[in-house]
Amino acid sequence: MLAWLPNPTLEDVMEFEMPYAPTHKAKTRIRIVNAASALFKKYGFENVTIDQVMSAAGLTRGGFYAHFKNKEDLFVACVENGMSLLSSPVLAKLRKAEKQGKDWVTSFAELYLSKVHIENPDLGCALPTLSAEVSRSGDQARAAFSKLIEQASDGLARKLAKEDGYTGIEGDARVASISKTYVAEATSMLAMMVGAVVLSRAVDEETAGNILTATRESVPLFRGMRSEAASAS
User: Fold this and answer.
1) Is residue 14 in a domain?
2) Beta carbons within 8 Å of 134's beta carbon, 6+ residues apart
3) N or C: which end of the chain has fewer CB within 10 A?
4) What are the phi and psi torsion angles at 3 (to 5°)?
5) What is the pLDDT at residue 205?
6) C-beta separation of 133 from 44 below 8 A
7) pLDDT tens digit string along 183-231?
8) Which of 84, 96, 28 has the alpha carbon at shortest distance from 60?
9) What pLDDT shows up at residue 202?
10) Last residue of one domain, picked from the residues 22, 48, 80
């Protein structure tokens, strides 16, 4: 049964031969997806190997193919599982800022365009790390990444609409019910901030600081100009 593995280990044999509880395979799959998500965000899609993913998950390579066909298949699973764009601490800070009545867009920009985010890609947004590499990957990975960007834009559009007083748009409410202006604004804002993070990670500390500061200051101004233009039309 394991003839396709050159040197099967005891763990490989157990993975395929031992009877496990019905929930074992699902739990193992989640372990792999969680490990892969962190690695993809930190090192990118192309730079991460299956061996690295399985090692991070505390498993052997042989068990990978019981869950996924290849690395692209795994990447799709990471996206479908809801690859986090922001870490739990960042989300907690945003919720706190909302409760305190602070402007959500400004708070989001300050956290996203921060030195901490630049220096800790594995704890931050997946989009800056994956953008360049997925463009050189197969159709399956590109489609999954497109879905990830759409999810991020939709979520941001909901927040922008909510700040302007829209109601009934939380949870699974479709962004289609929101004005296209918010979707366009969210998409352009996301592109601006992701681009700033990509550039900041590629340059020296002083230049990175200038990029982050300029973009942080531009986001609320950009939002204001978009709102004025929408009101005028």
Assistant:
1) yes
2) 45, 141, 142, 145
3) C
4) -65, -25
5) 95
6) yes
7) 888 899 999 999 999 999 999 999 999 999 999 999 877 776 555 545 5
8) 28
9) 94
10) 80
Residues 29 and 118 in one domain: no
To the nearest 10°, the Cα dihedral for 228, 90, 49, 27? -120
pLDDT in tens, 16-63: 444 555 566 889 999 999 999 889 888 888 889 999 999 999 999 989
Last residue of a domain, one of 52, 80, 108: 80
CA dist list (Å): 86 to 67, 127, 144: 26, 10, 18
CA 44 – CA 127 distance, rounded (Å) = 10
Q: Which of 216, 77, 196 is nearest to 147 (CA)?
A: 77
What predicted TM-score, i.e. pTM, was given to this entire model?
A: 0.72
